[in-house]
Specification:
Elements (H helix, E strand, L loop, with lengths): L26 H14 L8 H14 L5 H10 L1 H12 L9 H16 L6 E5 L5 H13 L6 E6 L2 H9 L1 E2 L9 H7 E3 L13 E3 L1 H4 L2 E5 L11 E6 L8 H14 E9 L8 H4 L1 E5 L2 E4 L9
Parallel strand pairs: 1-2, 1-7, 2-6, 7-8
Antiparallel strand pairs: 3-5, 4-5, 8-10, 9-10
Helix pairs in contact: 3-4
The site of S-adenosylmethionine has 23 residues, from α6.
Length: 298
C-alpha cells in the first residue's frame, strides 16, 4: 500500500483536548488517526490522548512495525489484527451489578417511581460491552414488573464483544454480586470442568431474559441516537473520552431522554454543569432531564 496517499475526510487534525502533548502528534500518528477515521468512522482524537497513544504504541511494538503507517497496513491486511486493535482501544471490563449500591438505588428509588406510570419503559445501555449491564437491567425490570415488555436497547462500538453479549454467558466472577436464589432464577448453570473454575463461562442468562435485550453496533461519538428513553445507562465508557467529547455526548443523551427521563453514570463519573444541560441530580450519579432540557439534537 502507498503509505503517502492522501486521505480526504472531514477530519480536521485537531486534538480537541486542553491537555495535548504535541510530541505525541508525530506525522505517522496524525496520518494513522485520519486513516482510521476513514476506515472505521472512529475519531481517535475524541479519546484521551496520552492513554490512547500508549495503548496503540504497545500494539505497534508488539507487531514490530516501524511506525503507525506500517501498523495501519497490517490492520488492512489482517482482519484479526483489526479486531485486536478494536479490543485494545475500547477496554471491555464489566460485571453484572457493577457497583451494587448504585444498582440498589436504581431498583429501590429511581425505577419504582418510573413504573408508577404502568407503561413499558424504554431503556438503553450505551457502551454495553459483553452484556453484563443490559442483562442487569433486564433482571431488575423483571423483578419489579414481571411480564411487562420493556424495550431494552444495548449498544457498543465493538462488534466482536456484541457477539459475546448476545450469547449471554458469564463467569463466576461476573456474577459475584448476585444472590444464589437469583442466580438460580435467571441463569442456567453448567458444572465446572475443573482448572480455572472462576474464569469458565458456566452461567448462561436464561432465554426469557436474553431475548428482551436488543443488541446493536453503534459509535456513540458519531452515530445517530434513538429518542424517547426513560433511562439511559452510560457507565465507565466516557472515562476514555476527551472533555469536549464528553460534553457533547451528555447533551445528546439529554436530547434522547423523555422529559423526566434519567441518565445513570458510572461510580467515578460526574457531569459538571449538569444544570446548564437541563438536568437535576435527584441522587448522586443519576441525572434527571427537566422539561426544559437545554439539549442539542442528535
Ligand atoms: C469498560 S466497558 C463498560 C461496560 C459497562 N458499561 C460497565 O460499566 O460495566 C467500556 C465499553 O465502551 C465501549 N466503547 C468505547 N468507545 C465507544 C464508542 N465510541 N461508542 C460506543 N461504545 C464505545 C467499549 O467497546 C467497551 O465495551
Amino acid at each position: 500500500m502507498d503509505s503517502d496517499r492522501k486521505i480526504e475526510t472531514q477530519y480536521t487534525g485537531a486534538v480537541n483536548s486542553a491537555s495535548v502533548d504535541s510530541s505525541l502528534e508525530t506525522p505517522d500518528y496524525v496520518w494513522f488517526k485520519q486513516a482510521m477515521l476513514k476506515k472505521s468512522g472512529i475519531d481517535l482524537n475524541q479519546y484521551k490522548q496520552a492513554q490512547m497513544h500508549r495503548r496503540l504504541m504497545g500494539l505497534v511494538e508488539r507487531l514490530g512495525c516501524r511506525d503507525f503507517k506500517e501498523y495501519f497496513d497490517r490492520l488492512e491486511a489482517k482482519p484479526e489484527e483489526y479486531a485486536i486493535f478494536l479490543d485494545r482501544m475500547t477496554i471491555n471490563v464489566s460485571e453484572l451489578f457493577r457497583n451494587p449500591e448504585k444498582w440498589r438505588e436504581l431498583e429501590e428509588v429511581i425505577l419504582p417511581e418510573m413504573l408508577k406510570g404502568k407503561r413499558p419503559l424504554k431503556v438503553w445501555s450505551a457502551g454495553c460491552s459483553y452484556g453484563a449491564e443490559p442483562y442487569t437491567l433486564a433482571i431488575i425490570l423483571d423483578k419489579l414488573s414481571p411480564g411487562v415488555k420493556h424495550t431494552i436497547d444495548a449498544t457498543d462500538l465493538d462488534r466482536t464483544i456484541l457477539e459475546r453479549a448476545k450469547a449471554g454467558r458469564f463467569t463466576q466472577v461476573d456474577i459475584k454480586q448476585i444472590k444464589p436464589a437469583e442466580i438460580a432464577r435467571y441463569f442456567n448453570e453448567t458444572p465446572s470442568s475443573g482448572g480455572m473454575a472462576d474464569l469458565e463461562m458456566r452461567f448462561e442468562v436464561k432465554e426469557e431474559i436474553r431475548r428482551r435485550v436488543n443488541f446493536q453496533q453503534q459509535n456513540l461519538l458519531a452515530d445517530r441516537f434513538s429518542e424517547g428513553y426513560d433511562l439511559i445507562c452510560c457507565r465507565n465508557v466516557v472515562i476514555y473520552f476527551t472533555d469536549d467529547a464528553k460534553d457533547k455526548l451528555y447533551k445528546r443523551f439529554a436530547s434522547s431522554l423523555k422529559p423526566s427521563g434519567v441518565l445513570f453514570v458510572g461510580g467515578t463519573e460526574r457531569i459538571f454543569g449538569y444544570q446548564d444541560i437541563g438536568f437535576t441530580m435527584p441522587v448522586p450519579f443519576f441525572y434527571r432531564r427537566t422539561g426544559s432540557a437545554n439539549a442539542v439534537a442528535a
